[in-house]
Input
Amino acid sequence: MERRAFLDFILKGAAVSSLPMPLVSCATASMYKVTFKGLDPQTTDLFQLMDGLSFELLIKQGDPISQNDHFGSNNDYTAIVPKSDGEGYLLWVNHEYLNPLFIHGKPSGVDKTLEDVHLEMYEVGGSLIELTRQDDGLWTIVYDSLYNKRIHARTRIPFSNGTAILGETQAIGTLANCAGGRTPWGTILTCEENYDNFYGERHPVDGSIIPSDEFGWEKFYEHPPEHYGWVVEVDPMTGAAKKHTSMGRCSHECATVVQLEDERCVVYTGDDANDEHLYKMISNKTNDLSEGSLYVANLEKGKWLSLNIEDHEVLRSNFTDQLDVQIRMREAAKLLGASPLARPEDIEVDPITGHVFVALTNNKPKGDYMGSIMKIMETNDDHSSMTFDYETFLTGGAETGFACPDNLVFDKKGNLWFTTDISGSSISKKPYESFGNNALFVVLRSGGDNGEILRVATAPKDAELTGISFAPESNELFVCVQHPGENSTGLDDLSSSWPGAFGEVPKSGIVVVKGPFLDDLLA
Ligand code: FEO
Ligand code: CA
Ligand code: CA
Output
């Protein structure tokens, strides 16, 4: 068997069974033999790790990063990028949303002042922080570095190429920054996911504003919903940001970039909502994502459907121009027959096979409570292909021991790491009683324990683990703990105090994980 086909075969073996596969020999994939035992499900208010690992807290919400700025709320996507002078690293972190109770003391639903809303607006967006390693090997932040910056919901951000949306060439702020991606030229993509929770959404028929369920900022500012729901590109060296319309507007979970041989890029992105879709954009130019061709997946036909208005009469009769298609991308996708999916979240490309892995978290109205991880195989392994095959790689449930997969990352040996996102209000409740708190898992790629799934870490109460990134040049894993204590009903009724002592207000934060398990696995 060809090596690629062989590796594909052993990975596929993991899809149909979590039982150990026969011992195989392979030059490039991990030959890890499990000597450490994964965790059982946990329900504690701790960040717990399997034997062979330990962690340090790097930063938490509210920690100052400079004289003027602090670290925002609900950290999600992380990227660690080398500084252009080669001296050290910068850390980009997404801040997805916030808990009003923990920021100004008023829980959701209680009347807010403009001052309260300004405090909330600062908590979302992203942080840029210089990192350094101390002599003892610990990562720490460089307080007050010139690189340290916050981008938030009051930062002016232009649309790329001078595009105007509702007469404005720039948006006020970025928000709902969930997962993201990196470009080959060193910039960061940060994705605006549940944007409608902040300024609401445009009514598709009468054009009125449908109020947001959560933050109600539309009562204070008339910023158009059409200015949010985009993929935003950030230069980590300067903090300069631009919103791309080329990848359309939806609840973008992530933006995963693959470079083609001709140096154009393919960006895969999922729309994290029930029955929404999987998209890809093929850029027109090198080192530039501002223009390209946009497609949506039809799984039944194994086809990428063009979202170019010139290609479809049904688009020409329902949309005024291509920008209108991109602004109302969900409607266009449905008119063309895009496949409804179970909340497509993070996407990663297998470094060995090139297959595209998509986390499908769940689709409760359709009875899919456990979710799955899907594998897309582009025709001829060509990411610009218009056709593909797909299959289910892993299904959540009692047999596999996980439910609701969300963030994905491959390590350098091709092991697949993923986190789960059972919603805070569902943890330990039917049908999720047996899974305990949300967790970080690894699917071992090959060797004597090929396909085994280990629960590596568990989150404190109500939290999910997000933003998993491997450190450059070491066997350390950065992990975000997001929204501990989300179900707290008051400051005197906290459901978590992580990472503080009992009774302290819980805070999202980033931990750095290391130890012999990682050293052995990645050796
Ligand atoms: Fe923000 Fe889809 O997770
Ligand atoms: Ca997510
Ligand atoms: Ca999620």
Summary: Residues 2-521 form one domain. The longest helix spans residues 3-16. The chain has eight helices and 33 strands. Residues 345, 406, 421 surround calcium ion (ligand 3) (CB under 6 Å).
